[in-house]
Amino acid sequence: MPLPTPEDERACRVAIDTGGTFTDIAVNRPDNSVFVWKVPSTPHAPDEAVIAGLTEALSEVAAHPHEVAHFVHGTTVATNTVITRTGARVGLVTTDGFRDLLAIGHQTRPSLYDQTARRPHPLAPAELTWEVRERLAADGSELTPVDQAQLAEVTSQIRAAEPDVVVVSLLNAYVNPAHEHEIVEVLRKAGVARSVFAATSVTSEMREYERTSTAVLNGYVQPKIAGYLDRLDKRLSQVGVPARLWVMQSNGGLLGSRVAQEQSVRTVLSGLAGGVVGAARWARQLDLPSVVSIDIGGTSTDIALIRNGVPDEMTAGEIEGYPLRMPMVDVHTIGAGGGSIAWQDSGDSLRVGPHSAGARPGPVCYGQGGTDITVTDAHALLGRLGDSLLDGRLPLDLPVARHRLSEFARKVGLGDTETAAGILHVVNATMGRGIRKVSIERGVDLRQCTLMAFGGAGPLHASELIRELGMRAAVVPPHPGIASAVGMLDTPVRHDFARSVSAMDASELPSVSAALDSLAAQARDFLADSEGISPADAVIERAVDARYLGQSFELRVAWTDDFAELRRAFDTIHEEHYGFCDPDAALEIVTARVTVTAAWQEQHVEPHRTTGGVPEAVGRRRAHFDGEWYDTPVYRREQVPAHARLTGPLVLHQLDSTTVICPGQACWHDEHGFLHIHPEEAR
User: Fold this and answer.
1) Cβ contacts of residue 135 below 8 Å, gap of 6+?
2) Cα distance between residue 329 and residue 425, in whole Å
3) Phi, psi values for residue 199, rounded to 5°
4) Which CA distances in Å does 55 have to 52, 198, 240, 305?
5) What is the mean pLDDT of residues 659-676?
6) Residue 1 has pLDDT above 50, yes or no
7) CA distance 547 to 502
8) SS3 354
């Protein structure tokens, strides 16, 4: 079928992003305006908050579920399953002699000088790992066929162990998956588990440890994701939503619910990818060449580098110490957010995070039973939040928070104000280190970068962060607290396909080109068969992973069949990433990659903001900045017209977030509603 277009005058597009504290809803109405809404998350059953948020948001815009033409969901179910170790019992079948592959890994310690640091235990434990006699050579040729008699014994052992999922990952199967498929077929016929699959069906790239780890992670989260998405799909149908359920995946694209249930590991970074995709689109819209996006939520801060409107990507990463081998947006996550708890370490130093108060009980000022002072409490007690959030729907209990702060301050040995300010200083320093990691450590000059701040708490920290880091400016999008959901509204369907190849000169490029053609055909067929999208709507991008001969890791380069041009492009990218290139080194191409995307035919356009003078403040209150209390004006952000220049200190309130402008800074809206923050003398 072709991609759906909102031709119906009443059609709405909805994106819902589930976070640790709030579930965010964005509704793109037929007039192209966006309505945003927030409801508390329900971690025990995330679909409850999704349905509640959808129902409330549609009611607010006088729309009905049957008018939803497009529905996108970002979920943290896979992430939380790995973090909390509540996944499936995964069995692993591997080549004879390689049962300890996951336990040995790279034989490196997580932290070189920390003798207490340990790698996490394999998600497929030794008692659920079986070996089968078979062997393929490095080129995929068969050395030893599958021992059918031994496989029959292994099948009986697996059936007796009753695993939830069985993964088959064999040596060199990425070149030739025949043995994996043969064993999978036998185990499926024997009914040894609810799900049996080959590692090459998840990722078919070289590096056995990463490939096996990725496949095992897929098996570990698959039952939870499959059950959740199936339940959500049914509940959406029950409330009358006719639209297909699309799920945000780690590579910054969408995949269908059925595919997500099979390849669940692709949703591990689902929740945070939407904001990065949105930030990249806004960077292109504002013509900003170097952007650092920072998404500050209740539990964590997600930071990404965006160059020329394209977020950095990686083909390998990890979650909770487990390697992942698949394309992902390159996001650096730190345990610092609005719910991060302030505490005192053994040396009596003030620390903040990474542990969080979460959605419940949450910060003390939320009045839901929280007892630990958090970053949000510090903001509230320094006069930056007022007496409520969410336009009055969440009143803040400031007296109780003030009492708990006083108790904590006495323990720390500081005054109340100094303690609250110290909490913000500590958490800003943590966030600053994260920003430096994705910029300065990659050879990018922060002084030339713009900070794109969003998430519920992003605009609270943006002003102080750009001042402390020397960044040129900050930009806050129109709906910062719902940015991930808004970013998902226009996200294209995307799938990635890869195959290991080998080429070192022009004479070997035809084999790489043939591999790319084969992958492109596979991509089109997959889009049609699995996602129901016509190949005519598909856009194919070809690339290769290359490296200097002898290097251990690769860089992605756009494909061209001209080896000299390919070499020049690689040298340029290598110099951008590492500060040098080596014209004398031999170039080795090791992976062929194809990305297929299908974009929605109508893009969302932000409503234009009218120009005008500086509006009247809706109130004033005492707020603390730079060691002093200021009589600070408070504005409603939606009342500030385009190009009206405001100077700090000031506070801007809106439904989904609060923006703080420090003394010595100024801010203004452009016509599209983006708030620009910069030093007072800079504009």
Assistant:
1) 95, 96, 142, 143, 144, 171
2) 29
3) -60, -35
4) 5, 40, 11, 35
5) 94
6) no
7) 11
8) strand
**272-320 confidence digits (pLDDT tens):** 788 899 999 999 999 999 999 999 988 788 999 999 999 988 888 888 8
- Quote the percentage of the chain above a pLDDT of 70: 97
**Contact assessment for residue 597 and residue 494, using Cβ atoms and an 8 Å cutoff:** yes
> What is d(CA 83, CA 232) in angstroms, rounded to the nearest whole number?
22
pLDDT interval class at 6 (50, 70, 90): very low
Encoded tokens for 34: 């966006």
The pLDDT of residue 284 is 92
Residue 594 and residue 345 in contact, taking contact as beta carbons nearer than 8 Å: no
Q: Which residue has the tokens 């994705």?
A: 438
Question: How far apart are alpha carbons 39 and 456 in whole angstroms?
Answer: 12
Identify the band that residue 354 occupies on the pLDDT scale cut at 50, 70 and 90.
confident
Task: Output the six-digit token pair for 76.
Answer: 């943290």
Look up tokens 């970068």; give the residue: 449
Q: Please tell me the distance from the alpha carbon of residue 405 to that of residue 386, in angstroms, as a whole number.
A: 17
Q: How far apart are CA 219 and CA 575, in angstroms?
A: 38
Cα separation, 60 vs 68, in Å, equals 14
Compute the distance between CA of residue 379 and CA of residue 382 in angstroms, rounded to an integer: 5
pLDDT tens figures, 208-258? 999 999 999 999 999 999 999 999 999 999 999 999 999 999 998 999 999
Q: Angle CA(254)–CA(260)–CA(261) in degrees, nearest 5?
A: 165
pTM, rounded to two decimals: 0.86
Which domains occur in the chain, in start order? 12-82+225-267 (3.30.420.40), 89-220 (3.40.50), 493-598 (3.30.1490), 619-679 (no CATH)
